[in-house]
Amino acid sequence: MKPSLTDRALPEQLPPWGVLVLESHHSPKFVMEWRTHPFVKIVYVLSGRGTFFLGKKEHFFAEGDVVVVPPKTRNRIIDDPACAASLYVCCVARSVLRFDVSLVTQLPCRVLPRERQFAHRVESVVRRMVHTQQSTTGMRPIAMVTDALKLVQMISEKSRETQKSEKGSADYRRLVQQYVDSLPNRFFEETSIDAAADQLDIPRRTFTKLFAEIAGDTWLRYLRRLAIEHAQRRLRGTDIPITSIAFECGFNDLSTFYRQFQRHCGVSPGEYRASAGLKNRTS
């Protein structure tokens, strides 16, 4: 049997034990006015997509997302006209959380980033709450409160992980930017990408990705370019032996230096020096 569709946001009237789960299956004509409530609202998006307005901020949502609306937060939903939403809305009274008042203030006000495992865990708890709410057993209140607390715990932990990850990403980018900026003066010291990542205490994959975004090239190609540019300057401006220049550039093997220089410049180091000297004499 198809779920009953609604054109308006459902009333949110909590029972005495302070936990309510609503099934809100929107029709194509769904309209929600702005509302504010004294309880915590946790929304699991079963299907559809649209925009969740939380205070002055707009958050796009889609299937599998979890939306957290703290108490006293002005909110409303506007569905995507092409894909009306089906939502499960868990309302938790502040009295349920009164044993630790900081829990409410720590809750995020946002759409939590979609992550399959987290969404599956939320879905499982919400599904159990729906079945419990439909039962007539005397254990219904305590079961509903227990699952509501579990849901709040999961969201608090996920929010902390997300904040730590976002902070870590910003710190990583700053460190990699500083590292890239320092390379023109120290490229000759670098030994491997693993050593560079370890030096900054950044996971190798993260380091590789951020380096490419910031430098516009891979780690190895960027260092090789710096080395060859240094070699060009030394070949043009000095008469020191090519072996010494290769050493300055960080090449332990002269044949590798010749091969890399030829690849980048199209001529050998000796030919480059001769051509540079000829241009200087004729200019």
Tally of separate helices? 9
* CATH level 4 superfamily of the largest domain: Regulatory protein AraC
Query: How does CATH name the architecture of the largest domain?
Result: Sandwich
* CATH fold-type name of the largest domain: Jelly Rolls
How would a textbook summarize the main sheet? 6 strands, mixed
Concise synopsis of the structure shown:
With 283 residues, this protein is an alpha+beta fold.
What does this molecule look like?
It is built from 9 helices and 9 strands. With 283 residues, the protein is of the alpha+beta class. It has 2 domains: 6-165, Sandwich (Jelly Rolls), CATH 2.60.120; 186-283, Arc Repressor Mutant, subunit A, CATH 1.10.10.60. The strands form 2 sheets. A 6-stranded mixed sheet has the order 1-2-8-3-6-9, with helices on one face. A 3-stranded antiparallel sheet has the order 5-4-7, with no helix packed on it. The longest helix has 43 residues, at 140-182. The mean pLDDT is 91.
Topology:
Blueprint (H helix, E strand, L loop, with lengths): L5 E3 L10 E13 L8 E8 L1 E6 L2 E6 L3 E4 L5 E5 L6 E7 L9 H5 L3 E3 L3 H19 L5 H43 L10 H8 L3 H12 L3 H19 L4 H7 L5 H12 L3 H14 L1
Parallel strand pairs: 1-2
Antiparallel strand pairs: 2-8, 3-6, 3-8, 4-5, 4-7, 6-9
Write out key terms for the chains shown.
single chain, 283 residues, alpha+beta, Jelly Rolls, Arc Repressor Mutant, subunit A, 2 domains, 6-stranded mixed beta sheet, 3-stranded antiparallel beta sheet, 9 helices
